[in-house]
Amino acid sequence: MNFLAHIYLSFDHPEITLGNFFADHIRGNKYKHLPLTIQKGILLHREIDTYTDTHPIPKKSSKRLHKNYGHYSRVIVDIFYDHFLAKNWKEYSNVPLKEYVQVFYHLLERNYELLPSKTQNMMPFMLADDWLYNYSNLKGISQVLVGMNRRTKNKSKMNLAIQDLEAHYSDFEKEFTAFFEELITFSRHKFNSLCEN
Fold first, then answer.
1. CA–CA separation, 74 vs 57, rounded Å?
2. Where does the pLDDT of residue 195 fall: very low under 50, low under 70, confident under 90, or very high at 90 and above?
3. DSSP labels for 124-178?
4. Beta-carbon-side half-sphere exposure of residue 105 (alpha carbons within 13 Å)
C-alpha cells in the first residue's frame, strides 16, 4: 500500500503513524534507536506490505498492468489504491480528507528530527504539492506517476499508467474496495497485538 493507506491503517495513533509512514526509508533493523512505539509502526508497515504482496486481489490488479510495466506494476497498484482511498474517503473516515492530511503534515513537522533523512528530503515536496489530498483526483495521481517515472530515469514508463487507470477504472475500484475491507480487519488485529506488547 502507499502513503495514505499506511497512515490511515495506523488508527490515529501518532507514533505508530510516523513509523508506519516512513518505514520504507528504514533498512533492516536500523530502527532500534527510535522510540518503541515508532518501532511498532515500522513493524506494522511491514506486516501490511507482506499481507498485501501475498493477497490475490492486489495480485489480480497488478496482473492487468504487468505486460506494460513489469515489476513496477505492484508500485502502480499501490498508487491506484491510494487514489480510491482518497476519492472514497467519506466511506472510511468522519474527518474530511483535507483536515486529516493537514493534521498528519503537522505531525511530521513536530517530529522532524525523528524522521529518516530520506523522509526529511521528501517532506518539502509532499507538503508543497499536497500529495495526500491530491491523490483524490486523477491529475494528482498523474503527477505522482510522472514523478515516479522520473525517479526511474524513464525506465518504468509509469507516467503512462494513468491511461490504464482510466481504461479499467471500475475494475480497479472494485478490487480496491474488496481488498481494503480485508486489509482494515487484518491491520486492526496486528495493531492491537503490537499495542498489547
1. 12
2. confident
3. HHHHHTTHHHHTTSHHHHHHHHHHHHHHTTTSS-GGGHHHHHHHTHHHHHHHHHH
4. 18
Residue whose C-alpha is closest to residue 15's, from 44, 1, 35: 35
Q: What is the pLDDT of residues 89-98, one digit of tens each?
A: 999 999 999 9
Q: Which residues contact 168 (CB under 8 A, 6 or more apart)?
A: 64
Fill in the amino acid letter for 12: D
Counting DSSP H helices and E strands in the chain, the numbers are 11, 0
Closest of 58, 20, 2 to residue 187, by C-alpha: 20
Give CA–CA dist 70/72, Å, rounded. 5
Gap between the Cα atoms of 103 and 85, Å rounded: 17
